[in-house]
Structure formats: C-alpha cells, structure tokens
Design brief:
TIM Barrel; 278 residues; eight-stranded mixed β-sheet; alpha/beta; single chain
C-alpha cells in the first residue's frame, strides 16, 4: 500500500478512547492525513467538533454494536445523518442499556471479589464517555484493584469470565438498516479480529455495503482474504487504525487506513440510501 491518507476508524472520549475529539483533530492533521472519520461506539456526540475543524476533511461515522449468534458484531456506518431522530433515539436507548449492563457486571464482580467498586465513582470517572468494559477496566487498574488491563479482562471482564453480560442491543441486519435509514453505508468492522468473517455472505444479503480490510489486527493474509470477499460480493473497502489513544498500542494513527487510490474508490462507492441529508 502507498502512503496512508485516510483513517476511517477512530475513537474518542465519547466512546472508549482516551483523546478528546479536539485532540484527535489535531493529531490527524499533524500526521498528514487528508480525511478521517470519528467512529465512536454507539455515539455521534463528538461530531460537531470534528465538523468545525478546518485542517482535515471529515466524514460522519459510527460503530454500532450488534450481536449475531451470541457474538459481538461491529458494523461501521459512514456518511450517516447524525441528526436523524430515529438514530439519536436508538443511541440514547443503547446508552441506558450500556449503563445497566455495566452495573450488572460491577455487581457480580463486587459480590465475588469484595472489591466494592462504587457506582457513583465509576460514573464520575466515565463522565460523558461510554459505559463499557474497557473504561471499567481502566478505572479498576487506576484504583489499583487489578495489576493491569490484561489481568482485568482475563479474570473479570472477558467474554468467558463468570461475570460477563452479553450485549444484545440489536442484530447486524437491524444495525445495517438503521445506517441505511440515516443515509449511510454499512461496513463490517475488522472481521478477522472479531471472528465474524463467516457472516459476510449472510450480511451481504441483509444489505452490507463494505468490509474493513485494512486494520492493525489483520495479518497480510487476512487483508487479502478481506479483499477477496470484497471482490466476490462487490463490496466497498475501508480501513482505519481503530485508534483509542492507548500508549504503546499498535492501533495508532497511520497503522492502517486507505491510500489515495483506495480512498477515491471508497468515496466513489457511497450512494445515499433512504436519507438525502448526509
């Protein structure tokens, strides 16, 4: 791949990232990117800041958390109308359910370990961010309750732990339909990181528009397989760093994204679905 000019997968403090939207705008400009998208989990609260930033072109984005056969399946949406009432109402409902889910997990952990994690304190820590496991793990590590994030997920918050609460907001087909209703295009995020590549044929039947081929967790072979999927089903291709602002993480700006040629193809693919405002 030639020089990366677009990063279409970035998270801010409104999700589970550590950087504010303002800091992200500055960072993408400093790294020489021409275009970026803020794709917070189930949130579009950071978009207003990004739209006002003049240094780098911005397109609206989101990463919706769906569930298929008990597996988290992340659907990226691009060019979505972030003022669509149905989208905003859905995201508000998810925020409530996220909080309830995390408090259920905290209750289980407290009961089993006696840690005494305080709900009010975790609420102050998260602020306007998302009630998710990564933010909880950061809180627990910061308080010295666990030695590391890795330890926390292995023993308390991982998918296979006794304290795990499954996500069940909606199905991938419902996520795709919502993105289309908001005038956007729907992409399957990092299929080989989430082990969801086998769902691609079914998701294509449900309206999937594209696949995130370029991602830091994808090996060269997995990138080739993503491109093969895209060619087979005539899907668009996206890519991004999945940046969270975590020091030392391989998911850093310029670790993955689109070069100029791929970006032209990506932009040419977009056709508004049900909503004219994008």
């Amino acid at each position: 791949m030639q020089r990366i000019v677009a990063d279409l997968h970035i998270h801010s403090t409104f999700s589970d990232g550590l950087d504010t939207p303002e800091s992200i705008c500055d960072a993408v400009a400093e790294n020489g990117l021409k275009l970026f998208s803020l794709t917070d989990h189930d949130s579009v609260k950071g978009h207003e800041v990004c739209r006002k930033y003049g240094g780098v072109s911005f397109i609206s984005g989101i990463e919706l958390t769906a569930t298929a056969d008990g597996r988290e399946t992340h659907i990226l949406g691009y060019f979505v109308d972030t003022e669509l009432p149905e989208l905003l109402e859905t995201l508000e409902n998810i925020a409530v359910r996220r909080k309830e889910r995390l408090f259920d997990i905290i209750g289980k952990v407290n009961k089993a370990s006696g840690m005494g994690i305080d709900r009010d304190e975790i609420g102050q820590y998260i602020g306007e961010g998302s009630y998710n496991r990564l933010n909880l793990a950061r809180f627990m590590a910061g308080k010295g309750l666990v030695p590391s994030l890795e330890y926390c997920f292995t023993h308390f918050l991982g998918d296979r732990s006794n304290y795990y609460e499954a996500v069940n907001y909606f199905s991938p087909s419902e996520a795709i339909a919502l993105i289309h209703k908001a005038g956007g295009t729907a992409f399957l995020a990092h299929p080989y990181a989430n082990s969801t590549a086998d769902l691609i044929p079914e998701l294509v039947e449900q309206g999937l528009d594209g696949i995130e081929a370029f991602h830091p967790s994808h090996s060269p072979g997995e990138v080739r397989r993503c491109l093969d999927w895209a060619g087979r089903f005539r899907l668009a291709v996206s890519g991004g760093s999945d940046y969270h602002g975590i020091e030392g993480s391989r998911r850093k700006l310029l670790s993955a994204g689109l070069d100029g040629e791929r970006l032209v193809d990506f932009l040419a693919f977009h056709k508004p679905k049900d909503c004219a405002k994008v």
